[in-house]
Specification:
With 203 residues, the chain is an alpha/beta fold. Helix content is 41%, strand content 12%. It contains seven helices and six strands. The strands form two sheets. The protein has a four-stranded mixed β-sheet with strand order 3-2-4-5, covered by helices on one side. A hairpin with a 2-residue loop joins strand 2 and strand 3. The termini are far apart.
């Protein structure tokens, strides 16, 4: 007698709820995340296991890479005050509109005589402008003046001492990093942060 095969119904899974959850999560991450802005001077920092966050304010950062130094400063009012002091020092005029734009800029790396051209560019064009770095040689040490005036501006605006951070490329020559350290120490700045990348501890 022949056996009768009964077809089994595999059933079906309703994926509607799963799709809803996936789209909700996707929407959440898109709405809450922030895009990483391109750096004026991208560097590959050396690795470290130390995890200490840099302050969100009262901070100046010198980025060293490819034989150049770029300068960045936290705080819009501090940036504007620093630019005013540098304008007086080097007799380079800046308009109020220039100061407002400078307050919103990221780090820069040009002599102050060329800074106005960088300020007038769109943010997307500044990184392609071929900035040559801030002069820091013995005949024209503008980096020293930026640090000095930024410290004065931060005390005037926030009534706090400016913190200093040095962010160097892992492949940069030590002499270049040392020059920046020496400029800091000439101004009695003996405490500063060295920015590194985080790596896991080796056991």
């Amino acid at each position: 007698m022949a056996k009768i095969k009964i077809k089994k119904n595999p059933g079906s899974t309703d994926m509607t709820a799963m799709c809803d959850v996936a789209f909700l999560l996707l929407t959440f991450f898109v709405m809450t995340s922030t895009a990483k802005l391109p750096e004026a001077l991208p560097v590959d920092t050396p690795n470290s296991t130390v995890l200490i966050k840099l302050p969100e304010s009262d901070l100046a950062t010198m980025t060293v890479g490819k034989g150049m130094v770029f300068f960045d400063l936290k705080g819009r009012e501090v940036r504007k005050k620093t630019l005013e002091l540098m304008s007086e020092k080097y007799n380079v005029p800046f308009t109020d509109d220039d100061k407002e734009k400078f307050a919103l800029m990221d780090g820069f790396g040009v002599p102050i005589q060329s800074l106005k051209q960088i300020i007038e560019m769109k943010s997307s064009d500044r990184n392609k402008a071929g900035q040559t770095g801030i002069p820091m040689d013995s005949t024209d040490n503008q980096l020293k003046e930026w640090i000095y005036n930024a410290r004065i501006a931060n005390i005037a605006v926030n009534d706090k001492e400016l913190q200093i951070a040095i962010k160097g490329d892992a492949k940069e020559q030590y002499d270049e990093i040392r020059k920046v350290m020496d400029i800091c120490q000439e101004q009695k700045i003996n405490s500063f942060s060295l920015v590194t990348g985080l790596r896991g501890e080796e056991f």
